[in-house]
Amino acid sequence: MHLPPLIPPASITPYLSCTGVINCTNARIRDLARAITISEDDDIGRTRALYLWVRDSIDHSNDTGHKDLVWNATDVLAAGHGLCFGKSHLFVALCRALGIPAGLCFQRVRREDGSFVLHGLAAVYLEQADRWIRLDPRGNKTGINADFSIDEEKIAYEPSHEGEWLDQHIYPEPWQDISHLADLSSDLQDFIEKTGQIKFPPINQMKAPGTRTICFT
After folding, report:
1. Separation between Cα atoms, residue 150 and residue 147, nearest integer Å
2. What is the pLDDT of residues 10-57, one digit of tens each?
3. How far apart, in Å, are the Cα atoms of 104 and each of 21, 37, 84?
4. Can you point out the beta strands (E) in 127-168?
5. How far is CA 60 from the centre of its chain?
């Protein structure tokens, strides 16, 4: 895939923090992260194991017919399913539980009917490779084949249509406007449709938390 390069953040520290959404200090998260990676010898192996587990063991809510929106990492783990956002929250929480810096990435994707939705994925800093890589734990199906790769990023959707974009920044937390939409949405489908209102990334969120710069239709 020909993807725009990631812009590395100035500091690793925020990408190791545990928060209400990425609640990596939770005992179940910590225990699971250790159990999944018990046979791995380095962070590349641990990251790969965590990624594959979330991608393949946690259902994608929309693919499997779930109607409830699950958001926080621990809730996604308990439910056994989540949208791309929730699965990314869980993956990032598992990485941070092991001291592996990880964050969130976002892109705008055009659907077959011409409408747009937002898609969430993740990025991880691998010290051995000395760089950040994108990883998409959405879950594969016909037409989608995301995978763990250091040499060539293999995410679910390659931007190829007018109006699509893949934000190059890595965020320590979900965008405030996405979280706001999650709070306002009545169910999973309502949330998915609402994400189509987001036209541009919040370019100032990392510099000035609380600043709302996203444009809506």
Report:
1. 10
2. 999 999 999 999 999 999 999 999 999 999 999 999 999 999 999 999
3. 12, 21, 11
4. 131-135, 165-166
5. 12
Residues 6+ apart with CB under 8 A from 94: 24, 29, 32, 33, 36, 50, 53, 54, 73
Task: Tell me how crowded residue 111 is: count the other CB atoms within 10 A of its CB.
Answer: 11
Half-sphere exposure of 164 (CA within 13 A, CB side): 16
Cα-based distances in Å from 125 to 5, 8, 92, 95, 139: 14, 9, 11, 10, 21
Residue at token pair 């000035």:
208
Tokens of 81: 């399913």
d(CA 72, CA 56): 18
Cα dihedral 164/1/91/52 (nearest 10): 140
Q: What is the pLDDT of residues 95-117, one digit of tens each?
A: 999 999 999 999 999 999 999 99
Closest CA to 137 of 65, 78, 56, 34: 56
Four-residue CA torsion sign, 131, 2, 150, 46: positive
Q: Is 199 exposed, middle or buried (0-12, 13-18, 19+ CB in 10 A)?
A: middle
Length of the chain: 217
